[in-house]
Predict the 3D structure of the following.
Amino acid sequence: MDTDAVLANGLARDLEAAFPILVANHQDRLYTIALRLLGDRRDAEEVAQDALVRAFRAMRGYPKERVAALRLRPWLASITVNLARNRRRRLDDRQPPSSLEPMVAAGFDIPAGGRGAPQATADRRETKRELASALLLLTPAVRAAIVLRHVDGLSVAEAAEALGKPEGTIKAQVHRGLRELRAALSAEPEPSPTTRTTMPVARLVPTMEAIR
Amino acid sequence: MTTALLTDDQLAADLRELRTAAPASVGFGALVETGLADRYATAQSPLGPVFVAWNGRGVSWVAPREDAAAFEARFTERVGRSIAPADALPGRLAGAIARRLAGDRRVRIDLDLRGHTPFEVAVWTKALEIPRGEVRPYGWIAAEIGRPKAVRAVGTALAHNPVPLVVPCHRVVRSDGMIGQYSMGGPDAKRQVLAAEGLDTRALEAEAAAGIRFTGSDTTHIVCNPTCRDARRVTPGHRVTFPSLAAARSAGYRPCLHCRPVSLAAA
């Protein structure tokens, strides 16, 4: 039995005793999923914490057999993706929609802060920053497929389960996502963000942190 | 920026690199929210700064402020959960505690009393009914919760109150009228809290020492606990005192419906 199956049995036996183990094992991946879907650290922290709390409350309401049978990786991912989607909608309601992703525009051309760091480290950071920014250019559905399949590392079957879609759809979305990422990373850098962004400064700061 | 085309494998490897460790507050915050761990911060009280601990279920612990490590160690030993400091109480909770300490009994403060007996919870819940600036004897609580003989057990339960001040165990005194023990620093601390609530503890203890247990009004013929707000409205010229409820009854007095004085013969 894999770790999660053992853990699911433990949760079914004694939820309160086993839940801290679930938190320790899954908090990083839920945070990563939320961060890469939303691009904002503070939002990601809240979504990841909320996902864990909702998972606990859901399991408390389930019969033991249902808890024991949970496939924790896709199940927890689906809770996180749904919460991130709701949060994104609320953010969109607050800000007038823009044809460009302002968060991405803002994050695209931040100079690499690699003063004194070895060049390889600076390059690596630069790659991660560009990739994180490019992810936010994808449509939400394609982004979710890429994040679950390739950042979190779920199988196609698990990602399909988490997102409630057929495996064929997930495969197509992942394929499309990789193609679009590749195109974004090969494109010329955008002009300076200051000329195009209309975002309030307060939202820029956590965004920049997130794309570090 | 590189213009070389990436293979799917390279891209997948780079995407895996985007995994990021969650800040510690994420997991711990989830444990707090589900009541499996606690946070604590300082609140102001008539006894000076106190530590207040809470989790998603409610306030779990109140204690005099002290060395943080010692407090955390004792909390974990007694309650069995981990605890970490917070910068401040959540705003709503801070406001509710301030209002509760100022005497507003209607303000709702959720309490996390898991692990305590139904008897203890009944005692603490009853203590919440005693108005600010008034006191009742242990025997009063025992009678009110339908366990008139359990006076000593009431005293023990009050001594184990995990949330003093929030649950006003300081408003329960010995059945002989003396001020009695207090977990937040002994009788003097108890006098200090009661004095902050406007009670003249010296006069109260002097009357108790003189054998006075109840007071009444010779115009209404109603007998009260001495600190009942109705009793304190009686002017000196009409105030009568009794050593027992039986004495009051035989003088034709009936018990106050607000403070519900009880016979303390058993105590």
